[in-house]
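Fig. S4 source data, part A: sequence.
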Amino acid sequence: MCFGPLHTPYFLHFALRKPYFMKITEVVCQIIRVKSVEAKTASSQDSVIVRIRTDNGLEGVGEADSSPEVVKAIIDAPFSHNIACGLRLLLVGENPLETERLWQKMYRRTMYFGRTGVGITAMAAVDMALWDLKGKFFQQPIHCLLGGKQHSSIKAYASILFGRDGKETHDIGQRWIAAGYQAVKFGWEPMGESEAVDLDLVRGARRGLGDDATLLIDAGCIWDARTALQRAEKFKDFNIGWLEEPLREDDVEGYVWLRGRSPVPIASGEGECGRESFRPFIDRQALDVYQVDLSRNGFTEAAYIRNRVEEIGARLCNHCYTSPLTAAASLHWLSTCRDAFLFEDCVDDSPLRHELTHEKVQAINGRITVPDGPGLGVTINEDFVKANLISESR
């Protein structure tokens, strides 16, 4: 339940007082990177962590999924002019509880950084940290502050890269079915090399999972619309649950055309940053499944996107391939989505995915539990941060 001591809403203890004005005193930006980075499409190898600290000793933590150094530059940037400001400059001295106003302030004062790209991703890390801090202040989980969870646990799919060929993909699938998952997604290279390679990969994946498990395919933005339709028609024979990102991420017209003809559901959205990025896809009803990454959108924008997608009757899923911070954030948000049906559970063996927090945010027997602790409900493993810290600024 979203109540505090003695079953009284905890925030009422504060509402009965005079308005409480916390102030942000520090915005700390840390880059962490595992010791061995491989040349693969996996953002579980490095991360940028944002910590927001206040004059009463509270700290909120957030994360962005992008190039860490680029995000850090946007946070650290000095004043240039009124619509090109670094985020730290805009936040110190502000009340962190005013998340909507601070989002609008950051959005307005960074207009020349671009409205749908890495500027929004940097804001998302700040926003995640602000909501974590707000939850800790009110002693409530973020899902309560977002309006209340509708699911206490969600079916999870193991999210992993393809093997080198169908045989290796088959073996990977068997491994995760044996681990208790009943849904697995395979993605990215070597898909796209040829039709023969593509079919070999999907055939191997289905054989590895067996007939009953849910198979999801992430193509990795590799085809034009006609080729994607040809693949969708072939993949239908393997009973796939969705075909993800078959086209480049900003090809709205291509997705509209493809979704209207595809025999399998079409999913996308992981690369979109903020409501303006999602707006054309939602307005044109271009997708069957809208995948929202909390480390590129933050809670403020993700709540808006949730409402818009639910209005058009489409489905929502999270995207998450970084650390337990984003996994926890994704659970808080996805649990408030009316028709949440799957959770993306990155099973990459990178230590960043499993060791950044003391709490393990991972599915057990194919289902993952929504955290109920204050804020994000997870705590940073400071020893891991210290061992993998690349740079820090405040």
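Fig. S4 source data, part B ends here. The mean pLDDT is 94.
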